[in-house]
Amino acid sequence: MPLRPGTARFLVLAGVFVCAACGLVYELELVAMASYLMGDSVTQASVVLSVMVFAMGLGSLAAKRLRRRAAAAFGAVEAALALVGGCSAMALYAVFAWTGAWGGVWRDGPSLVLVAVSLAMGLLIGVEVPLLMELIQRIRRQDPGGAVADLFAADYVGALVGGLAFPFLLLPRFGQLTGALLTGAVNAVVGAALVLGLFGRDLGRRARRTLLIANVLVLALLGAAAVLADDFERAAGRALYGGDVRVAVRTGAQDVVITGGGPGGRPPGLYLDGTLRVDGRDERRYHEALVHPAMNGPRERVLVLGGGDGLAVREVLRHPGVREVHVVDADPRLVGLARTDPVLAALNGHAYDDPRVRVTADDAFRRLRVERGGPYDVVIADLPDPGDTASAKLYSREFYGLARRVMAPGGRLAVHAGPVAGRPRAYWTVEATLRAAGLRAVPYRVTGAGEREWGLFLASPGPRVPPLSPAAGGPGSRTVKEGSLRAAARAAERTRVPGLPASTLAHPRY
Questions:
Q1: Which end of the chain has fewer CB atoms < 10 Å from its terminal CB, N or C?
Q2: How far is the first Cα of the chain from the last one, in angstroms, to the nearest whole number?
Q3: Helix ranges restricted to H, 100-170
Q4: In DSSP terms, which residues pair with 442 in a beta bridge?
Q5: Cis status of the peptide bond prior to 375, with omega within 30 of 0
Q6: In the prediction, which pLDDT does 307 show?
Q7: Annotated catalytic residue: which of 155, 309, 382, 388?
Q8: Which helix or strand (DSSP H or E) is residue 28 part of?
Q9: Which of 96, 458, 454 has the alpha carbon at shortest distance from 278?
């Protein structure tokens, strides 16, 4: 050894520490990117973790055949892991952006890439520890139990540092793409330095040259990708949103993109975390259907949960007799954009400039637990689809129980419950959950541009379902009529899935 055994052994354990930190960053980055692109963080985390752990077992078995050339094998594994892990976020994003709208077999392209990358990284990470065990024993023989304890201690502490560095340093400072590329560069440098610096004599001249060239190429590729990351992200954004992106910001809670709205251009669109939430072609049909039936009755005090874009508030304010509108949205920057962005503010009719509107930046569930400003005549739940894991609690029995508590006698609750035809079980689970919370609900379904559709419920704590009709004395609507609402209720009823249990916090069923 070029160094004393104690020093060399310490450096190997330091290498284990860094490699473990990098491995956990790859894992968390892959889960975060998959959750952001495809939603349902529980499913994405389960896929990544289970596939990687399975592949790590296979990698450990494969390491048996590599023990005789442990130094060369470890150097090659670290170079490959740096390249695969560093580029994994970019690869997943590229497939999602450029093939996600192709349909057919390409519809599952991001999921297939997620599984393939998780499998590859798991195999490479599984090879690491057996090879490091072999290398540390070459420095100084010790009992296997003690060597394993030292390796795992360094590995677990490194995983802790990597797990904390990802959300608190890499993600906010560098973003997902550059953060993964930087982690790959660190992984490649440490792996190459460990092998060439401590175990170079175990390698022939040709092997040393090959390993050095391979790591230089990996670093060059990672560096080039980091330099081009912003251009890549803009190109992927154009593929996702079109060429007329007006606003693209990360608010801390979500990614917000506003497109179109220019003179002679396409209608405005609002994307939240890559999903189209507002389409200027049909948003009025959705928001009128959500709000107008709920306003049929007393409506002096209205609570809007979500709806930070201000479009549901716009429809509420069109009705005479409204004295106060309380908006609760978890993203204050989205509300700020809805107030100041000229296109979005024009779309919502400058609703936030109305003195009757007050805004609270808070999670809707948490706010309902402490709300003391009720009772409200109308509650509008303009929330993301229940299929999103992060919003499952906002469609739980407990959430609807809290909403019922702040409603006035005879009050109405309007609920957006996601698509009907695409996810009928989730839609009708919402009704079962409303019923379990003591609310009677009438279902209805409206359609928009293309294949877009929305499933809605109008609920009330009274003994009867509330009447599904436009508000008496309301402003009138081009899209919400007595006959169209009856047809919308019949269309939803035809999809009914009976016998579904309610969703709770402890047992979400979406």
A1: N
A2: 58
A3: 109-139, 144-165
A4: 458
A5: yes
A6: 92
A7: 382
A8: helix 5-38
A9: 454
Q: With beta carbons less than 8 A apart as the criterion, state whether 19 and 78 touch.
A: yes
376-382 vs 301-306, strand pairing mode: parallel
| Residues contacting residue 146 through CB under 8 Å, at least 6 positions apart | none
Task: Could you list the beta-strand ranges (E) of 347-406.
Answer: 357-361, 376-382
CA–CA separation, 240 vs 244, rounded Å? Answer: 11
| Residue-wise burial string across 374-413, b where 16 or more C-beta atoms lie within 10 A, e elsewhere | bebbbbbbbbbbbbbbebbbbbbbbbbebbbebbbeebbb
Which residues, including other chains, have CB under 8 Å from residue 349's CB and lie 6 or more apart? 310, 314, 317
Q: What is the pLDDT of residue 105?
A: 66
Mean of pLDDT values over 316-320: 95
Q: What's this model's pTM, rounded to 2 decimal places?
A: 0.82
Amino acid sitting at position 379: V
pLDDT at residue 5, as a whole number: 84
Q: Strands 275-279, 301-306: parallel, antiparallel or unpaired by DSSP?
A: unpaired
382 as an active site residue: the answer is yes
- What pLDDT score was predicted for residue 41? 81
Alpha-carbon gap, residue 304 to 302, rounded angstroms = 7
